[in-house]
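Quick one - inputs below.
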Amino acid sequence: MPKLNRDTRTDVTFTLNGKKVTARSEPRLLLTDLLRHELGATGTHVGCEHGVCGACTVRIDGEPARACLTLAAQAEGADIQTVEGLEPEPGGMSPLQAAFREHFALQCGFCTAGILISLKALFDRKPGASEQEIREQLSGHLCRCTGYTPIVRAALAAQAQMREEEPRNA
Amino acid sequence: MKPAPFDYVRAASLDEALSALHEAGDEARVIAGGQSLVPMLNMRLARPSVLVDVMRIGELARIEHRKGMITIGAGVRQAQLERWAPLAGTLPLVASMMPWVGHAQTRSRGTVCGSFAHADPSAELPLALLALEGEVHLRSKKARRVLPAADFFLGMMATAAQPGEMVEAIGLPAHGIGTGTAFAEVARRHGDFAIVACAAIARPGGAIRLAVGGVADTPQAIALPDPSDPDFDDRLNEFAWALNARDDLHASARYRRDLVRSLGRRTVEEAVSCRS
Ligand code: FES
Ligand code: FES
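Output:
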């Protein structure tokens, strides 16, 4: 059985935004720190480090999850998507990101990466999610400067646009 | 806010997990979804020297419905239970609680059994286990035993599980025809800790059971008469006092007692109204 020693750095391999990556980690390393410090993927933010704020939300095998409550070792073999994986082409913006800009749904942007990931996961699973469901999904996030009204507005606008582009999801 | 060092065992089978737990004794902790344990590791409230990851053990990730009992294995994530198609029909009480269990972003990883093993007094799933008189299947390298919910929860975040033992599964009796159930909770937001949570069950024969979480160190349950009975309010009031509510950051003891009385009556009335 694979036992990883506390002092030894071993390889963790997973898919990050469609590409296979390998990084070295000791057992106690959090996924947030592996992403940011070992892989340089600093789009994922770290706020509270105990599961309360949602800034660190990434998708693990399609599901939104707290990267700060995930050990890097637990991610072995997983499919992980971070905010960097949302842009359709380098420098471009997905409809969700564009709607956030359009509707002033961010100020400092600290909470934004996590919120975008959570909403993307929601719309992929449930393209027709109701406003209530959008608000429930947002309840797993704290935004301390913009307020939630513009965020909900942006989410609804992005949803409408995505459904226009892909009516079969409607 | 980083965990203290530990060894990490990725168990490929139940035998491997049980051997690793046996060897490390009280130095070891099981990690499943990690949604309760990792915050404690990060804050160094827990400093195990070995973590045994049980999420690669396929046989633990099953939900089974057999002979009127729903068995949920240690690897079943809360989101998996939430989306299990027969849930609303077989465990309507649990189905109504699920939106209150953490957030979508923690239910995606957190396991059902992990919530029992963690035994937070304000958590919803332990309340369901007590309300429904479910059972906890404990397993060690040498033995297995089954405990009723009331014997499993010993105190705030304390359970009857011994060093070397893990929660292998929990069993919940499937919904009986004609039974009415209801759940209500007061919390600052969905997903926050419950200030008071109530679950009521009204059996077709007339028996009524109310379980309350968030007040005492463990969820507590009481048998009550019909809400139309003149004794009902007195019995509920005695129960509210017996829970020994405390003042804390979230609410005063008095407010909690008030909630037990009002929310308790409301959930019982609702359960009775959906009984047939
Ligand atoms: S940093 Fe992970 S939830 Fe706050
Ligand atoms: S935009 Fe600043 S915290 Fe949300």
